[in-house]
Design brief:
Helix content of chain B: 40-55%
Largest interface: A-B, 80 and 77 residues
Number of strands of chain B: 10
Structural class of chain B: alpha/beta
CATH topology of chain A: MetI-like fold
CATH class of the largest domain in chain B: Alpha Beta
Number of domains of chain A: 1
Order of helices and strands of chain A: HHHHHHHHHHHHHHHHHHHHHHHH
CATH topology of the largest domain in chain B: D-Maltodextrin-Binding Protein, domain 2
CATH superfamily of chain A: MetI-like
Oligomer: heterodimer
Distance between the termini of chain B: 54 Å
Radius of gyration of chain A: 24 Å
Largest sheet of chain B: 10 strands, mixed
Shape of chain B: globular
CATH architecture of chain A: Orthogonal Bundle
Order of helices and strands of chain B: HEHEHEHEEEHHEHEHEEHHH
Chain lengths: 539, 339
Amino acid sequence: MKTSEKRFARWGSLFHILGLTAFLVIVFLPVFSLLAEAGLALVSRGPEVLSLAVPSAERMTLLLRSGLFSAATAGAAGLIAICAGSLLWRFQRKPLTYVRWLLLVLIVIPPYVHALSWMAVGDLLSDFSLWRQLSQELARGWIPAWWVQTMAHLPIAVGLTLVGLDTVDPSLVDAARAHRSEIQGFLRVVLPLSVPTLLAGNSFVFLLVLLDYSVPALFQVTSYPLAVFAEFSATHDSVRATAMAVPFLVIGLPVLVGAQRVIRKATLNPRRHRDTWTSPAAWPPWFSLLQWLGLLVLGLHLLVPLGSLTLLTGSIGAFGASIRSAGSEVAFSAGLCGATALLSLPLGLAVARHLGRRTRRSGLWWALVTIPLVIPAPLTGIGLIALWNRSGLGLVYSSDLMPLLAMLARFAPFAVLALYVELERQGPGLLDAARVFQKSSAHGLLRIRLPLLAPGVFAAAALVGGLSAGEVGSTLLVLPPGRSTLALRIYDYLHYGASETVAGLALTLFLLAFSTGLLASLALGARSRRVRPATRGTT
Amino acid sequence: MASRIFTVLAASSVVFLPISCSRRSTTAEVVVYTSVDRPYSEPVLKRFQEGTGIRVKAVYDLEAAKTTGLVNRLIAEKEHPQADVFWNGEFVQTLLLKEEGVLSPYASPEEEDATFRDPESFWTGFGGRARVFLVNTELLAEDDFPSSVFDLLDPRRSPETFGVAHPLFGTTATHAAALYALMGPDEARSFFSALRQRGVQILEGNAAVRDAVVHGRIEAGLTDTDDACGAIRRGEKVAAVFPDQEDGELGTLVIPNTVAVIRGGSNPEEAKKLVDFLLSTDTEEALLESGWFQISTRGLAPSSGCVLPPVSRTMQVELPQVFQALDLARRDLAEIFVR
């Protein structure tokens, strides 16, 4: 091996170790400090704390209901995503292909804003006597809560469905289409090959819904996270709250472990390097109907918040005033979310490589990645305070690094999982060819490996950036004094009742997300222009 | 392309990290944590900053955090406090912070006018909001307006047309604790059990109660005066009614704001100046004008577009009594409502 190659390998190892260490310190240490405190409390306080980890019959019912609710939401989002995604999948040429990537960044709109938008629709319907009864019935209960949560998380499900469908080898699709009907090929070949990514998407949705008490509470639905929060707000005791959150681990971990097993057992399908749809699809009418219905629902996801926010904002002047009033928050949020998205990538790449290894140690890494996903946001914030609010660390604790660390602690595991799926889908053929023909390791990395990773990198960054934009639970606890994010400002005004201001700010958030998505789409388009000619027709 | 992405990534990280470590200011500053809604508290803090030249760094609480986000933060930061002052929109959390050893005593010269104050000067109460029924005047005739919290249990009224915020959180929890202190645990527990069994709507927060009344999803709901005033000032078709104003009735719960100095804060002198400012007549006038206060401890009249009828009968309960009742109330209410 040449000296330069050795040096490159050494630098690569160093960055890899740095990434792993950063992940452990940033993501797992706050959780570990909470768990360690809970463990010590278990010794000193004994059964009192332990009993909280084992739900009573009533809390068990609540937990099961919350689990079923999350599963129903994830299932519905997954089904709609398959219907709409299979239609959008056909749009593989510009400019329609750009539209698909915009979906993923729409997750930036917090579920709370979706809830308020749909409530506004209900209020509008109640003005008509014919609909009044129905709108009042649908103003509370599990069904509207389920609908709003499904709509709020639809972009994640659709985005990851598209990632999954895009990674199906076109030659396999061609073979299926040649020997079976379109729908049979889709159901028996395409969907099973996309299962890992679909399951990853559904698992994300399941966990995000499982941990959220705010939207169910808006529709008067009591969920298990509300019980945890009630305990925390009553006792201000993070140990008791952590003990009560243990059932989240019990429910959340099997979901992730199950999804993980499917992902690991799945056939490694090489990424497509040419258009899948060289001839028009011939779906049966019932499936076409489902596809268009799925797309309609996806359209509603976009149009209802956009329409109600625009109407509520009232005028361009009011919109301008909203932006001016929140100029510093807009800039701060954009910087913070951008930095979180960027920094989650090296962390994600370092850890994702370990998830894919078939060793005993990979099980440990899976645990390190998944446990933070099921820790409620306020507890992450408390863990960060316990960790960083110490003598000698004042400069860090009172700085903008704290909300950045909070967002990374909460959402970097999502980047790990998204990048893991992407790494698993990399075709070994191209990588082997790269090893043979590359001028150097750096050349192979920059010209082959990273370009292949680019869609996963964008998806992970958009996912993390979008989730960070709506984060309030842990940010509130560690934000430096004098700072505020756009999401926090929206929540400030939600209570005040200044609906035009809230709408203007939420619209700003929406447009920021839209612009980010557009830029990401253009970047992906530019990348595909460079990569495709050299790889067209390869498998 | 990918190499560019990673160059940008690395460059951004390298640039962002150093600049994100904010430098400590050399000018005088004070850090305040406040649970008072930002649209009301921010102008007051700006006036203090402009008047004194002391830079105010604020952290605002959220309705979604149920007024406990900052309290949890203050407790967690107790050993190395970041805040200098806590300005609370109610009082029980402040009393809790005193119990947790988070506060430092300070007897402000302005405190002499205060109706509510800690005997050891750990906190001072000022101004006040009150619990109030907000009524949709299109759905309910004036004769049918509720006049007592016990109207929520009136079998002649449909329970689904009434709403209250979740009694485990915020000022509704304070109200519940006050009822526990006043009525006794058994009677209060029966009251809330009946409320739950009847099917009175339990909404996410006081703002949700206000919005449900405004949009006609319910006929009337129990909320705070600042929420009620927000709707009235916007010209919504609603009215506010103080509950239990007749002789022999419980009276309306008045909830003062409280302010306290944080023990071990970095800017103790500036903190005292801010406390003095918040307790001043000027601030009380400003908060009455903005609609945050409806009750004046100095007998000032509320101005602005929302003038509510005077509270003739307030709930006769001491603030520490309410605080002491809170723990039992919360445990009971968790059993009743979180299921």
